[in-house]
Amino acid sequence: MQLISFKRMSIFLTFLFTFLLFLSISSLILVPKFDDVLSSIFNPEMIYSLKVSLYSSLISTGIVLGFSIPTGYAISRYSFPGKSIVKAILDLPIAFPELVLGLALLLLFGQTFIGDILEFFGIKVVFTKLGIVVAQIFTALPYAIRIVCSTFQDINPRYELVSRSLGYSEFETFKNVTLPMARSGIFASSIIAFARCMGTFGTVLMLAGGTYMYTETLPITLYLNMSYGNLGMAISSGIVLLMISFIAILIFEKYEGGKF
């Protein structure tokens, strides 16, 4: 009897929270007037921020994949000194707020020798569009590494051992055996990384700034227009971000651990 009541209570709470979450998300779409949303979406500011978000997110996602694949493979396959510390540091950005990460990056690229070296070569990160990409990379990379690492862990190492026994080098085995078997997980990680890049707010705001029609991404557009009291533009930005996130989750659920 206790088991049944606990089961019912668990299911009830599950449906209750799901219903409340559904209502809150639906209100973003159903409450605003369609004409207001449509006019806001075709506003030059919205188009500009959408372009900046898409271009920067595509670049950031490519760089994130370039780092997450070898990093995820190293963590999943090799033992090395300080591995647990490395994993903890890589997971830190997931645990603390984006604003903290943005502040850390602002200090790194603005107040340290790294910033001075980049400045010497004419590379400016702070309050520039390059800062958007850097902020997105540092925000999305930990998520991509976790997914890629989990993908490699699910692949039986025996396949790699057989490949090595047949004379393939370690890199050839990785390229011809492991990587093709991990393609679904890598694709899923790229989708999540892209969605995280598109939705990055606090890190971008701190490092690149929220400059109107310059370092303005979709989340910045939402923030700025809420500050101005322009609710229509803010809601439209939220709807676009919601649709991107929804599509990303659908694709992630379809391909994570599955096959193309």
UniProtKB/TrEMBL annotation:
Primary localization class, coarse: membrane
Pfam families referenced in this protein's UniProt entry, alphabetically: BPD_transp_1
Gene Ontology cellular component list: plasma membrane
Molecular function via GO: ABC-type sulfate transporter activity
Domain of life (superkingdom): Archaea
Subcellular location: Cell membrane; Membrane
TM segment ranges: 52-76, 88-109, 121-145, 185-208, 228-252
InterPro entries xref list: MetI-like, MetI-like_sf, NifC_ABC_porter, Sulph_transpt2
Membrane topology recorded in Swiss-Prot or TrEMBL: Multi-pass membrane protein
Keywords assigned by UniProt, alphabetized: Membrane, Sulfate transport, Transmembrane, Transmembrane helix, Transport
Residue ranges annotated for the ABC transmembrane type-1 domain, each copy included: 50-252
Gene3D superfamilies documented for this protein: MetI-like (1.10.3720.10)
Protein family according to the UniProt entry: Belongs to the binding-protein-dependent transport system permease family.
Protein name listed in UniProt: Molybdenum ABC transporter permease protein
Annotated organism of origin: Methanococcus maripaludis KA1
